[in-house]
Design brief:
With about 210 residues, this protein is mostly helical. It has 7 helices and 4 strands; from the N terminus they run E-H-E-H-E-E-H-H-H-H-H. The chain has 2 domains: about 1-75, Glutaredoxin, CATH 3.40.30.10; about 85-205, Glutathione S-transferase Yfyf (Class Pi), Chain A, domain 2 (Up-down Bundle), CATH 1.20.1050.10. Bound molecules: glutathione. Glutathione binds near residues 10, 33, 38, 51 and 66.
Length: about 210
């Protein structure tokens, strides 16, 4: 196996927390997105999407989505289970991972990429030239407000976002709340449940900020 990654970026961060929880280490190549290394070799030959993370599996296929990589690693390293044990737990974790990605991570990414001159013609990651859409900045901010409220309500009376134990849903929500800092947004003061939950997740060794 070989992993192409840039641990501080939000999608790789999700994966690295997952791996740390399971004590999995994979030989890796660091792809510095700030220097544009995703557009050059070796990544471009491995992943035509020019994104990280990308995992070259022992079996050959390259996995380019965090969800798929985590499914693969969970099957190979079942303990501790992070994708659920029972059918309903698995389904709820999947539900919340998807909601966090669509309602939190994507809106933050839209704010980040569409208001920053450094991303001119790079409104989306990948090989295509995609124009920025400035209106997505305001929409993303609005969606992020709603996302924080959603998490606050969900966490009332619960220790974890889905199921009875720490899971990938918590990992995704934590990485997304950290990513909000990239657009200078923090959890609103009135979101006390979310603040309490975030502080507990931040205490886990897996959640320590990655080096560079
Ligand atoms: N859906 C993909 C998203 C991968 C992605 O967008 N990764 C970002 C880093 S968080 C990236 O590689 N961006 C490259 C770029 O901005 O050019 C996943 O689940 O991993």
């Amino acid at each position: 196996m070989h992993l192409y990654t840039y641990p501080i970026a939000p999608n790789p961060r999700r994966l690295h927390i997952f791996m740390a929880e399971k004590d999995i280490e994979i030989p890796s190549t660091h792809v510095d997105l700030m220097k544009g290394e995703q557009f050059g070799e070796p990544l471009r030959s491995v992943n035509p999407l020019f994104t990280v993370p990308a995992l070259v599996t022992d079996e050959g296929p390259v996995l380019t989505q965090v969800n798929a990589i985590c499914d693969y690693l969970e099957a190979r390293h079942p303990a501790p289970p992070l994708l659920g044990r029972t059918p309903i737990e698995k389904a709820e974790i999947r539900e919340w991972c998807h909601r966090v990605f669509c309602e939190g991570l994507i809106p933050i990414a839209e704010v980040f990429r569409n208001g920053n001159p450094a991303f001119a013609k790079r409104g989306l990651p990948g090989p295509l030239e995609i124009a920025q859409i400035p209106a997505l900045v305001e929409r993303g901010q609005q969606l992020l407000d709603a996302f924080f409220t959603t998490l606050e309500r969900r966490l009332a009376g619960r220790d974890y976002l889905a199921g009875e134990a720490f899971s990938m849903a918590d990992i995704d929500a934590f990485a997304t709340c950290e990513f909000a800092g990239w657009i200078r947004r923090a959890i609103p003061a009135e979101c006390t449940q979310l603040t309490r939950w975030r502080a507990r997740v931040a205490e886990r060794p897996s959640a320590r900020p990655p080096a560079g």
